[in-house]
């Protein structure tokens, strides 16, 4: 359990509102299940489901915990896969809508072998499940308590309930620990239905018509989420390189900074995903006599990246690293490599060469390196091509890093290196799983090189630091990213592991 989660758990236990989970002490469903019931009162009674009227939130949450324990591990965004849940501890339960349907906002601490994580859930409750509810959105029927027999489900899949959530953002409401906030500007509609997005993502997004998209963060950390912090800074500076921020909501956490829970931005209805566009272009290398020229787009994307960096450097702190601080940057990379090599044995033979590349960062001419806030996990899938140019999304940073780490200013070239890796991925994707074909491999390598060069040229043309002028830094940053990718692929997509490993081989043997 992290220190912060530990202090939250204590604070709520001390508050003396600790209903026993149905598993009893030591059972998985909230052994010390400290639900802080923010509103609502007990209804009592059993038998026919009685959704409607005021909500008995404490009883509802207790009855829901066993269903949540079964459902949670199957969710894409659930980070504790493979680790048995040892406890579910509701920290706050806030009714957002009473009646039939009802909606309860839940911050739930999930304890497992590796520690504890805090998750955001929106529970929908109805006497009858909503029509056409996806099977994966259903948590099941409650089997005891005042709502015995009622349908419990993930409210993000209920367009009507998501419309209510938009309404709270539109009117900047407050509910117990939850505060909904709006940016200045035109009012928000409160009558749009919301449909859950279908993109493969780490959180859950709800799309309102063609106007807005609400990202509901799933794994919650105390403090302002970097996605909100950086998107707001860019929005306030008038940048058109991100979807404008319209609203957000957050929760007070006992003993910690308020945590960002959701971010509402303009939806880009005519946008195309950069990764899909790149894959489409790469696929044409297999025999299309007129393969498109993605390098023009890569150049524009480089320009867009430099523009975003310029705005961030004006809006947020910038620093120059002295020799000792540059040394710490190199040490952090070396440590990440060692942790990764312990987890993925295929990395181990490259360690000496990669460590040597990191040591080069301490060379005299690299002192005075400028650092600033950056995107932190830039890749083609985070770039959308719109009729008005490239727009960047998702400024959360690498999900595996703590929020504190993600907020540390970095060399801007870290984003450039990350995007260069993405061109490499797109090219390697063409060859993955196919019989070796040297001619195709050559075409794919040339495609990646051409687009990497064009991207760097666009970045430099728009005022970014010329990556070619800092080869040691760029190489170290690419290695650091490829090491991260090795761990990411080993964990999430083992079939893709050869892509970053091939890059590691290349980067380790390059001089
Ligand atoms: N403003 C937007 N307009 C259109 N589509 C968007 C917008 N924001 C996100 N998306 C779509 O949703 C997907 C997931 O968004 P992202 O912010 O990357 O979520 P996550 O952090 O959960 O991975 C994106 O890849 C994109 O397809
Ligand atoms: O988009 P997320 O914030 O969830 O980022 C994670 O997932 C990405 C994959 O979806 C992963 O990116 C890696 O794979 C991409 C191709 O799918 C490739 O374009 C990127 O260059 C590569 O890093 C990202 O690293 C991870 O944090």
From TrEMBL:
Gene3D superfamilies from the UniProt entry: 3.90.1200.10
Gene Ontology molecular-function annotations: ATP binding; kinase activity
Domain of life according to the entry: Bacteria
Region ranges (Disordered): 1-33
Any one Pfam family match given in the protein's UniProt record, by short name: Mak_N_cap
UniProt entry tagged with the keyword DNA damage: no
Domain Maltokinase N-terminal cap residue range list: 71-158
Reaction equations catalysed: D-maltose + ATP = alpha-maltose 1-phosphate + ADP + H(+)
GO biological process per UniProt: glycogen biosynthetic process
Pathway named in the protein's UniProt entry: Glycan biosynthesis; glycogen biosynthesis
Enzyme Commission code: 2.7.1.175
Keyword field: ATP-binding, Carbohydrate metabolism, Glycogen biosynthesis, Glycogen metabolism, Kinase, Nucleotide-binding, Transferase
Bias (Gly residues) ranges: 21-30
Family: Belongs to the aminoglycoside phosphotransferase family.
Record text on subunit structure and interactions: Monomer.
Protein name: Maltokinase
Species in which this protein is naturally found: Kitasatospora kifunensis
